[in-house]
Amino acid sequence: MAGVDGSDSSWRAASYAAGLARRQGALLAVVYVQPIPVSPAPGVVGIMAEATAQVAEEIVAQARRDAEKLGHVHSLRWEFYTLRGDPYSGLVRTADDLRADAVVVGASERAGHRFVGSLAVRLVKAARWPVTVVP
C-alpha cells in the first residue's frame, strides 16, 4: 500500500511501492486521505472540501497515466482508494482493512515535522506492518 498526497516524495513512494508490488505479483493499493477541512469562517469549509476532492481526482489521473506507461512494459495490478479524515488514521484503517503486506509513504517535506513528528514516524511507531519511508 502506498500513501499519496500529491507531493513529490509521495509519488516516489508510489513508484517504489509499484516496483515492490510488480516483483511480488501483488496488488498495489494507492491511498489518498482527504484531510477534513476546519475553519471558523462560514463557506470556507466547502471550498476547502472541494479543493481536496480535486486533489484526489488529480492524483488518480496521474496514477492512471503512470500505470498506462508501465502497463506496456510490466503488468501491474493496482487500485485507488480515497477517503476523508485524518491522514494517519485513514492510512492505518485502510492498511488494516486491506491486510497490507507493507506501507510505503514519502518523507515529510515540512520543516516542522522534524521536531513534532511526521505521519511516517507515527506509522513506523505503530509497528503493525513493515513501513518504508521514501525520501
Automatic annotation (TrEMBL):
Organismal lineage: Bacteria, Bacillati, Actinomycetota, Actinomycetes, Kitasatosporales
Stated family: Belongs to the universal stress protein A family.
InterPro entries xref list: Rossmann-like_a/b/a_fold, UspA
Stretches assigned to the UspA domain: 2-135
Pfam annotation, one family: Usp
Position of the signal peptide: none
Designated name of the protein: Universal stress protein
